[in-house]
Amino acid sequence: MDALLLMRLAVLCLVSALLAGCSLPALDNRTNSRALGITESETTALGRAIAPRVQAHPGKSGITALADAHDAFAARMLLARAAQKSLDVQYYIWHGDITGTLLLDELRAAANRGVRVRLLLDDNGTNGLDKTLAALDSHPNIEIRLFNPFIVRWPKSVGFVTDFMRANRRMHNKSFTADNQATIVGGRNIGDEYFGAGEAVQFADLDVLAVGKVVGDVSSDFDRYWQSGSSYPVDLILPKVNASDMQQIQATAQTLAQSAAAAEYTQAIRTSAFIPQLLKGELAVEWADTRMVSDDPAKGLGKAASNGLLIHQLGEMLGRPTHTVDLISPYFVPTAAGVDVFTKMAKNGIKLRVLTNSLDATDVPAVHAGYAKRRKDLLSAGITLFELRRMSAMGKSTNSAGPFGSSGSSLHAKTFAVDDKRVFVGSFNFDPRSAHLNTELGFVIESPTMARQIAKMFDQGIPENSYEVRLSDTGDLYWIERRDGEQIRYDTEPETGFFKRGFVRFLSVLPIEWLL
């Protein structure tokens, strides 16, 4: 009995020590800073080029889409090079691969020019970067913070065991803002798969480059997150590094930039016209009423009020659709409540079309399980469902799924159009995780032009690069693929095996929908 008691005490002490070791440091001595003021930002090269155009379109924002993966990478690199006073950068994932390393080195180079760099990263997406981030943070002009960080650096999964309710809430926002004059917002994280590099999964995605009124809103929102109770300076979390580590970052980036693997990216930087045209005041943009929507960063601690949630703001801004809803979401988990809303819309004569990933294309089968069990109800309500084909299944097709093209093997863009006049672009997925757990960011753009482009995608490009899911007279699902003018029918999920389908069916009965 004494031995058993001693064993229990030992286990209790071990657990207590583990929990104590996982406690986050206090933020009492954290210093705060704010985005560059508009008066100061207008004296920069970006400000001088943009200000006259903004003054000619009061209250509006200039928007241009970044659909091509190489253009999206080059725009970020060149925006960093154009910055003269500040860079505010916020991302969910940042990989230490080719594109991630080159962009980090570009931030370092900007800091060397005297630019103040603030980098805010969700800590769940920084695997393998601790030494690099600590080295960058040692630069006097760079400050890096981690959102909802993990004290145990490896394996980070320990944090989900000891502090699940906090660790399960992540910062999914994505923005890249230079001199408080131009910003890039959308679906892309920082990594090769988002910019068309490498042989692994490549994402078809969408960002927008914005100038004008909405840029100040993004900067103010960055300040909210920077100063939030979930954002920790890396010097409180990561071990100190040697001065030589900073030199290693530059050396690694220079080696990568000269490699064959990076050739298409260095070429994109040399040939991209986005930022040079922006600096000349010549970049073609659409001037539109654009409103930022963003979750209260208190959501990261489960403390946000309902009116501080992006989903609430979206509902207020979009109102009630009257004609059409065209929705593109890589992770689409409508839940029973969402199916009810869509069904009521359809009964009121609203035409609803949805594009998401097929099981073969998705990178998260668990999320597909949450969607798959709702398909029959959605189809019965009259909603049209398309599932993007994986690139390998597309072969050498030259058809284009709208602005995302056919270069991505998995859909990652998050956008939708309402009534052919209003468009959302951002980080928000139509799933419970985006609605209730993760923080999100996006734009609502009053643009009939962009809305019509999305509608055209559903009319032409999407059907040619997707499977259309249908319901047979007997209530069974089947999939239609359009190829070379013919229709091919599948009675099971295309390009998938028995075990993968069985695994998804198993996941669909588990009570995990709230996590998806």
Please characterize this protein's 3D structure.
It is a single chain. With 516 residues, the chain is of the alpha+beta class. The protein folds into two domains: 32-280, Endonuclease, Chain A (2-Layer Sandwich); 292-393 and 406-515, Endonuclease Chain A (Endonuclease, Chain A, 2-Layer Sandwich), CATH 3.30.870. 39% of the residues lie in helices and 20% in strands. It contains 20 helices and 21 strands. The strands form three sheets. It has a ten-stranded mixed sheet, with helices on both faces. Strand 3 (116-122), helix 6 and strand 4 form a beta-alpha-beta unit. The longest helix has 20 residues, at 2-21. The two termini are 45 Å apart. Mean pLDDT is 91; it is low at 1-17 and 393-403.
Concise summary:
By secondary structure, the chain is an alpha+beta fold.
Strands, helices and their partners?
Layout: H1 2-21, H2 38-41, H3 45-55, E1 61-66, H4 69-82, E2 86-91, H5 98-112, E3 116-122, H6 130-137, E4 142-147, H7 157-162, H8 164-167, E5 175-178, E6 182-186, E7 203-204, E8 207-212, H9 213-226, E9 231-233, H10 244-257, H11 263-271, H12 274-279, E10 286-288, E11 290-294, H13 310-318, E12 324-328, H14 335-347, E13 351-357, H15 365-372, H16 375-380, E14 384-388, H17 391-394, E15 410-411, E16 415-418, E17 422-426, H18 432-437, E18 441-446, H19 448-465, E19 466-471, E20 477-483, E21 486-490, H20 498-508
Parallel strand pairs: 2-3, 3-4, 7-15, 12-13, 13-14
Antiparallel strand pairs: 1-8, 1-10, 2-5, 4-9, 5-6, 6-8, 11-18, 12-16, 14-19, 16-17, 17-18, 19-20, 20-21
Helix pairs in contact: 4-5, 4-11, 5-10, 15-20
Signal peptide: 1-28
GO molecular function: phosphatidyltransferase activity
Domain PLD phosphodiesterase: 167-194, 407-434
